[in-house]
Design goal:
The protein is an alpha/beta fold and about 425 residues long. Helices cover about 30% and strands about 20% of the residues. The chain has two domains: about 280 residues, TIM Barrel; about 100 residues, Immunoglobulin-like. The strands form five sheets. Strands 1, 4, 5, 6, 7 and 10 form a six-stranded parallel β-sheet that branches. A five-stranded mixed β-sheet has the order 12-19-18-14-15, with no helix packed on it. A four-stranded antiparallel β-sheet has the order 11-13-17-16.
C-alpha cells in the first residue's frame, strides 16, 4: 500500500519533469537539437520597484532565518547551435551572470551553502548558488571563462559515465582545472537514468532497486571522490526522488541533495530535497523568477487574512480545516461520495505551491486523494477541489491546514567533514 500511494502521487509529476532532463549521449556523435525561438536577454528581468531601490545593500550578513538562496541549474552552452531547454546561448549566460553582478547578489560556494544551512554561518539576505549538470564540454569552453571572470564559485554535478573526454564531454583534467578556480564537484549518479527507468526498477523488486541505488549513488560517490577529492552533494537525475532515496543517501556519504523544483531556499529547507531553478535556454522567465527576491504574499496568506479561519468544505477532508499536522508528506484527501450529481471525471485538486496535482479519484470508495512528492514546510497549505455536476455547472470547495516545522537532528557527518 505504501508503494502504491507514493507512486500515484509521483508518476505523472516525474514523467512530466523527466522530459526536460534527458542525459547527454555517451558517444562522440553530435547531439540532435531542434530549432527553438531565441530567448529574451537578461535585460528582460523584472524592472525594479521603488521598494527594491530602498534595499540595495546586500553585503551585510543577516540572521540565518532572513537569508534566501536562489539555486540556479544549467546544462549546455553554445552561440551557434539552436537553443533548447538544455542548451543556452553563451551570450545569454554572460548577460545573466552580469545581471547578478550588477544587482550586488552574493554568489556562494557549496561549502558556504552548507555552512549556512547546516551550521551557523550568516550570509546576506539574497544569495545565489550556481550549479551545472552532467559534464558538458561547453561548461569548460563557454561557461567557465565567464564564471572565472566574475570570480563566481560553482558546483559541477557530474555523472561518472560522461566523464570521458569523448564527444561533448569534459576530461578529468578540465574538471580539475576548474576546481582550481572555484568549482565544487557533486554527483549526478553513475548513468543518469531516466525517471521511468528508476520507477520500473522500483516496481520490479525492492532488492533490485536497492542494488540500483548502490550503483547509481554509491559507486558514483566513490568514483568521483577518487577522481576529484571528497564530495558531499547529490543531484537527482530528472528530479526523480522518493523516500527510499532520501533515506539511503546519507549512508553513501551525501549530506545534501538537489531537485528540479523551483523556489527560494530558506534555512528550513529539507537538505535532501533542495529546490533549484532549472534555467532553460529558451525560457528567460525562469531566470527572472529566480532573481525576484521581492517579498510576496502567498495565496494561503491572503486567504488566512481574508477568512481568519479556514473555510469548511461540504464534505469530510484530511487534513481537516485549520488542523496542524506533524507529518510533512500527508495524504491529502476528500470524501466526495455523498456529493449529489458530481461528475467524478471532472474532479481536479489544486494545492498551493504545486498547482493542479495528479490526484486519484476512487469512485467505489468515494474519495479523491494525493500525496505530495516533496515535504511540506510552508503554512498554511491551501487545497482547492474543483468539479462539475452532471449538468456542467462548476463547483469549488477550499480549505487550508498547517504543518509543523520539524526539529532537525544535528548533522554530525557534515560537522566532521567541514
Amino acid at each position: 500500500m505504501r508503494r502504491v500511494l507514493y507512486m500515484m502521487g509521483l508518476a505523472v509529476a516525474w514523467s512530466a519533469w523527466g522530459q526536460y532532463f534527458e542525459p547527454p549521449p555517451m558517444d562522440p556523435d553530435p547531439v540532435e537539437e531542434s530549432e527553438s525561438k531565441e530567448p529574451e536577454g537578461a535585460s528582460a528581468v523584472r524592472e525594479r520597484s521603488d521598494d527594491d531601490l530602498l534595499d540595495t545593500d546586500n553585503t551585510k550578513p543577516v540572521a540565518r532565518e532572513k537569508t534566501r538562496v536562489a539555486v540556479l541549474g544549467y546544462h549546455n552552452f553554445s552561440d551557434t547551435k539552436p537553443v533548447t531547454e538544455m542548451l543556452m546561448r553563451t551570450s545569454e549566460f554572460r548577460q545573466q551572470m552580469d545581471y547578478i553582478h550588477k544587482e550586488g547578489l552574493r554568489v556562494i560556494s557549496m561549502k558556504e551553502f552548507l555552512d549556512w544551512r547546516l551550521g551557523t554561518l550568516q550570509l546576506p539576505a539574497k544569495c545565489v548558488l550556481i550549479t551545472l549538470d552532467d559534464g558538458w564540454r561547453s561548461v569548460y569552453t563557454d561557461a567557465f571563462p565567464i564564471l572565472k571572470e566574475y570570480g563566481y564559485p560553482f558546483t559541477l554535478f557530474l555523472y561518472t559515465k560522461f566523464v570521458t573526454g569523448r564527444g561533448d564531454s569534459m576530461t578529468p583534467e578540465m574538471i580539475r582545472e576548474m576546481q582550481q578556480h572555484g568549482a565544487t564537484i557533486g554527483s549526478h549518479s553513475t548513468s543518469h537514468y531516466y525517471p521511468e527507468t528508476w520507477k520500473k526498477e522500483y516496481d520490479l523488486d525492492e532488492q533490485s532497486f536497492a542494488d540500483m541505488m548502490d550503483v547509481e549513488m554509491g559507486d558514483s560517490f566513490k568514483r568521483l571522490s577518487e577522481l576529484f577529492g571528497p564530495i558531499n552533494a547529490y543531484c537527482y537525475p530528472g528530479g526523480y526522488v522518493i523516500p527510499e532515496m532520501i533515506k539511503q543517501l546519507p549512508h553513501y556519504g551525501y549530506v545534501v541533495a538537489f531537485t528540479v523544483v523551483p523556489g527560494k531556499v530558506d534555512v528550513h529547507e529539507d537538505v535532501m530535497q533542495v529546490r533549484r531553478y532549472m534555467v532553460f535556454g529558451n525560457d528567460s522567465s525562469i531566470f527572472r523568477q529566480a532573481m525576484d527576491f521581492s517579498p510576496h504574499t502567498t495565496s494561503a496568506q491572503r486567504m488566512a487574512k481574508k477568512y481568519g479561519k479556514s473555510p469548511v468544505p461540504p464534505f469530510p477532508v484530511y487534513p481537516a480545516p485549520n488542523a496542524e499536522v506533524d507529518e510533512n508528506l500527508p495524504l491529502i484527501s476528500a470524501q466526495i461520495g455523498a456529493v449529489q450529481d458530481m461528475n467524478l471525471s471532472s474532479v481536479q485538486m489544486v494545492v498551493g505551491g504545486f498547482g493542479r496535482v495528479p490526484s486519484k479519484v476512487d469512485s467505489s470508495a468515494g474519495t479523491v486523494q494525493w500525496i505530495p512528492p516533496l515535504r511540506l514546510y510552508q503554512s498554511p497549505v491551501v487545497v482547492e477541489l474543483n468539479w462539475k455536476d452532471v449538468h456542467g455547472k462548476p463547483n469549488k470547495a477550499t480549505w487550508y491546514f498547517n504543518v509543523k516545522r520539524p526539529k532537525e537532528p544535528p548533522h554530525e557527518q557534515y560537522k566532521e567533514n567541514s
